[in-house]
Amino acid sequence: MRRDRPRRRPVSEINVVPYIDVMLVLLVIFMATAPLLMQGVEVALPAADNAPLKKAEESDPLVVTIDAEGQLWLNLGMPTAGEGPGRGATRVSLGNLADQATKILNTRPTIPVFVRGDAAVAYGAVIEVMSVLQKAGVRGVGLVTEPPELGSAGGR
Amino acid sequence: MVLVFSGRRPLSLLLLWIALALGASARGELAIEITQGVDAPVPIAVVPFAWQARGRPPEDLGKIIRFDLARSGQFAMTAPEDMLSLPSRPEELYVRDWRVQGIAYVLLGSVRSTESGVEARYALFDVFAERLLFDETLEAPPGQLRALAHRISDRAYEQLTGIPGAFSTRLLYVVAQNIATEAETFRLEMADADGANAQTLLKSREPILSASWSPDGQTVVYVSFETGKPAIYLQEIATGRREKLTDFEGLNGSPVFSPDGKQLALVLSAGGNPDIFVLDLETRKLRQLTRHFAIDTEPSWTADGEAVIFTSNRGGGPQIYKMNVRSRAIERLTFVGDYNARARMLADGRYLIFVHRQDGIFHIATQDLERGTVQILTETSLDESPSVAPNGSMAIYATRSNGRGILAVVSIDGRVKYRLPSTEGDVREPAWSPFL
Amino acid sequence: MAGLRAYLWPLAWALLFHAVALGLFSANWSSPPALRQSSTAEPMMAELLTLVAPAPKAAPKPKAKPRPAPKAKPKTQKKAPPAPLAEAPAPARPEKAAPERNAPPAAPEPEKPSLQEVLGTDFEDALAAEASSDASDRPEAVGSYEADLMARIVSQWSRPPSARNGMSCDLRLALVPTGELVSVTLVRSSGNAAFDRSAELAVRRAAPFQVPEDPAVFDAYFRSVTVTFSPNDLRY
To answer: What CATH number is attached to the domain comprising A91?
Structure first.
């Protein structure tokens, strides 16, 4: 054991150079990608671990779903059969949504309104929906998220 | 020892009983008692009826029903323009469209032509229980759409409230025009309970007073001054045939049918001052009921026909009294206030509705005969002649607005009030028909 | 051989470092791509919420006792407890809310465990009683939920005009741990269909209810609730 040591010493000193080399390359890669990654993390909230929905004080909320293509779905009317984002909902246009929301708010001003935006949907589309809802008289909306462990499974 | 044992046995039994009771209650049974409610109007939607009959709809059935039910005050109506969908058949109804608006019941229907007229199919849906309460059809001749709508209102009202609807009933009232002028006219009119379809039964240059219905709703009695002095007439509605019943010297007033329709209570002053008489309509025999030097007037019957209630000033001011028709036992009913008159007994026999003066203003008031409590129903002044709907839920009365006599309706609990649309002239002395 | 052995440690370190770096890199990479910010509207209040129960379809499901919710629910159920600790009253904590209402049930209940132990009547009850460790404060927590349930029903109950003081009907409510109402059964009718329906409507409109988080307490008290409607404040 003791005889081995003197032989090892010179070798270990040489090895530091590739090590630093790799480190620097990695540093450059991280520096280049970091700004891009930061923005993604900030905005892509839909799979977020936040407070679960309080046990609904009021039942029968209005749920506006925005799917990945930016199409709107409402939990009203004849349910659409089959799978997909609109399962159990009906498709509406933005003008239609404004109309329906106004009618509902006229009769039930305290209705809870939820927006279920797809993680891939543009922020602008969500804002557009929210502004339409606001004009209809909605005071505040709930942005629906899914708990992370479901989020990966649910994808969408 | 014996004492101890006998003392213990009930104790152990008691323990066992408690244990059993607790065991039962702990098996997932939380027992809650609800003794109060808020009694807010129930949200209901009447969907515009689909018109599948020939031609254009002469009447908006849904609108008539909506007005009917809204007037009852029991329901909060949803405007058609706020409805998310307009189903006309129960199969087309999506529960969540209504739940999201918090609407509890949906009445929907359609009208189609038949050989003899029109047929309405209408259904009432319980949104929260997701249950169809009824789905029925009703036929009517072409000109009877309003009546058809009122029938549907009656059906829905009875289903939801447990008491029959009185929307298919009618009103009698007197319209006076150009009062105190040369062209003074009086008309005895009959209209639907919502004030529509008014038709004139009698037109006269002299006053018409105190019209009231027979229990079958086929005949009316009233006082007419057409000969220059008061006389009581009986008139068949369908044929218009009239018959003079009394025209004694002095006052002939306030004729009211007994609940069985065989007798008439009325006021005559043949003996010098007004007293209550009973006229047997078959034998035409007159019987004097009250005999008092004070004024006895404005008779009406209790629901069982056993007694007559009337206004009398025998105690000083006008108050309500009750006299048994057979035993002639008399009882004073009102003690609150110094002016109580023109009383009608509600069908349950517990409440009295009458004109009550408070601080110099005449209101319509009810009195709970068991507790003696008086509740003032109306805020207007100069309210007079209350008449109760046959289902006992509302009372119609005459009041004044902008110097003109109009008719208004108040619910017996005082929560709901509305005015009837009035034509020109002074409208007075309303009488609500029995069920027709 | 000797040269290779000398390279071993630095190589190991380098590999490890690369692995860690790659891991971090790929972990970040899996998050969705960035979104472009677009023109903003008027500011509006928005709240981030995790939807516990899927809202769109609320079809009544036939309920078996042990498993309360299908698929998604158990996971979210696990998530639920932390929040109430923060804001809502925890079931185990003694509550002061509505003391006058929970007075009646509080009276007989404290005795229960001891009685059952002594008499050994019902094994299930004993289990239920043991499940929530502190027997003395449980009834109070139940009481506050009970008071909330009562208040919600009262605020929704519109009696029809045919209702009279002295009428009475019993409804049995079946609840699930999320507080949703699964079914309402008319156990005893008042004889007046409109009255019965008004009671049922009140319950259905009042749902969902706040129920205890503790499954044992929920099972013992809230899975099935019998509500008696007997008005005493009517005019008649």
So the answer is: 3.30.420.270
